[in-house]
Structure formats: C-alpha cells, structure tokens
Amino acid sequence: MVTDSRTRLVEAAQQLFAQQGVSATSPRDVLAASGVGQGSLYHHFPTKHDLALAAVAATAAETLEAARGRLQGDAAPLDRVVAYLERPRDALGGCRVGRLTADQAVVDDDGLRAEVAGYFTGLIDEVAAVLRETGLDADAALDRARACVAIIQGGYVLARATQDPELLRSAVRGFVALLTGPATA
Amino acid sequence: MVTDSRTRLVEAAQQLFAQQGVSATSPRDVLAASGVGQGSLYHHFPTKHDLALAAVAATAAETLEAARGRLQGDAAPLDRVVAYLERPRDALGGCRVGRLTADQAVVDDDGLRAEVAGYFTGLIDEVAAVLRETGLDADAALDRARACVAIIQGGYVLARATQDPELLRSAVRGFVALLTGPATA
DNA sequence: GTCTATACAGAGATAGAC
DNA sequence: GTCTATCTCTGTATAGAC
C-alpha cells in the first residue's frame, strides 16, 4: 500500500519544521517536498495551522517515546539518566521540539504550544521518576530532572551558535561530572 | 539632542528581534516601531541584512557586558557564579541572543552567527575564568562553564514551552545544588 | 480526493522628488 | 537625509473543474 497523501504531507511538514521551524515553512514548501498537489493539501488540512498541529503533535509524540525507551531498562537508575544525557545527538540541527519554543507564532498558539509543553513535562516526569529510584526526594528529583532536560536544550543552543557539536558534548560532560559526584568527577 | 534616525532604527529592531526574532520581523515593522520613514531606513541600511547585523551586534555586546559586570566583584568566585545563575530573568521572553539560534536564517548567515557565537564564547570564557579561581583545572572549568551557560539557555526553553517561569528557576536550583555540592545540597 | 487557476496581502526593495 | 509612490515575489488561501 502506497503512503497516502495525508501521511506524506505530515511527514514532509515534520521534516521541514525540523529544519526551518513552523513560521518559516510555507504550504508551498510542504507541497514541493511531499510531491502532493495543492488541492490535496487544502482538502486534508483547511489551513496551515491544521497541518502544523498534526506535524508538531507527531514529532512531539515520536520524540517522547524514543526518550522513554532510553530511560527504561535494567541498568542502574543514575546510569540510565547518564546514558540518556550522553546519547549522540544532531547537535547542529538542534532539538526538533525545543527549537519550536523560539518561534513566537508557536508559543502564541495554544494548540501548538500544548504539544510542545506536553513533550517537556512528559520527559521531565520520566527523568524525575528515574531519579527518585536513586533515593532522591520528590522535590529535589524534580529540580534535578528539569536541570537534566535543560542542559540538553542549552547544549543545543551553544552548539548551533558556534556551529560546533563539541559544545553540546562539553556542557553535558560538565553536568554529568557534577551529577555523578566526586566519585566519578 | 534628539536621537537620530539611525539610532532609533537600531533600537526598534533590537526590541522587535527580541520579541519575534529576525526572520519574523519585517522592515515595515521596524519603520512603524521607530517612527522613521522608509527612505531613511534604506538610506542608512541598504538591506534588511545590514540592519539586522547592526541590531544583533548591539544586543550581543550589551548582553555580554551586563553579564561581565555581574561575574566580576569582590565576592567568592563560586558565589559570583551562583549569583549570575540565580539572577532574575525574563523567563517567558527568553534570551535575546540565545533565541536567535533557532532562526535558521541567522545561523546560515556568517555575519549574524558570528555575533551570536561571540556572545556565547565570551560569556563562557568569563565564567570559566571565575571557575578557575576556585582551583578547578582548565578543562574541567571549561566543561563546567559551558554547563552553566547551557542550563540558563535550556531553562528558558522549558519556561517558554510551558509558559511557566518556575521551570527556569527550578532547573537552575537543581543545577546549583549540584554545583555547590553536598555542603549546600 | 485531486487538479489547475486565480486572488490578495505582505515582505523586501527601488525610483525619483524634495 | 528624508519623503511618497511603486514594483516584484512569496505566503496563504479560494474557486471550480475533473
């Protein structure tokens, strides 16, 4: 079965949003990338907003699921968090979800922002749950989980600003050294 | 002496870029905000790119200077870093410089990106220098300085995503607890 | 469901008068 | 140096045939 127009449109939009953001991506761009005709786009998605919502929701869900997979497993809790932090990333591309927070049109739209917010709260909750397994109390685990997620997002910013993936790795290294304590530092 | 057109244009552009980013801000927006006429804009800045360069450079320089001021002083080195991290910030607005890294047009432009990169490398160097005063070796200080800068940038992302300034403060709290060690944690 | 053609606003810039 | 008028291209969407 050939992929249908609707699916191709959403997948093309996801890719373009990851590269250029939502505001900078036009319906025409999506049409060209998907190979679908103009009539089809506006049949499936009456407005650009409808398409954006579908694409952002799909990206947020996929990304959160991947992270959840990594944070679960048999390894020791702290090791799983460190493995999550140190996982290879497309540093120069940036986070497909996090970058959207710089797009004012996304933040100003309740529907789009809810998808982005859901990704981050879901990810933070997951990390916090793993940290609590280490014996940390709930409040400290939440602060520390937010720091874990923030260090990745901030590392992306540094890497993109300097066009040097090493800055993401370096920031993570500095953080992990603090996280694992004097024993490993 | 009344502020001249050129200055008013740059200041208006700085404000608009902080709110909407570079790509999303049109020359017309800048004209309206500055109260200057169209002829003047294109007299002082032949293209939008010229104006963007002037405005981004000004913002990067101002922001870096402000940070330097905070990181110098008589307090103990680690206290100065913590004070820098914990300083009140416009969490929902985001970093005026860092947010630009999500704008592909900025990253793809060597001139604009150089201004953004200069801000971050300057800031990181400053933090690293202060951390070395604590006795940390150069490599560890650099990793840790990058983590400090990244935690702020990442905290902004979380705060904007959830529209809740508390997430920036919480991420910083989690990081500072690790940074100041068991003594304060 | 999909196609082509068309509409209309705004972005970015130029022209030429003052 | 500053003004108004104008130009072209693209973003976003609609119309109506197939």
TrEMBL record, chains A, B:
InterPro entries: Homeodomain-like_sf (IPR009057), HTH_TetR (IPR001647), Tet_transcr_reg_TetR-rel_C_sf (IPR036271), YxaF_TetR_C (IPR054156). Residues 3-63 form the HTH tetR-type domain. One of its GO terms (molecular function) is DNA binding. Keywords: DNA-binding, Transcription, Transcription regulation. The keyword Transcription applies. It holds the Pfam family TetR_N. Residues 26-45 bind DNA. This is TetR/AcrR family transcriptional regulator.
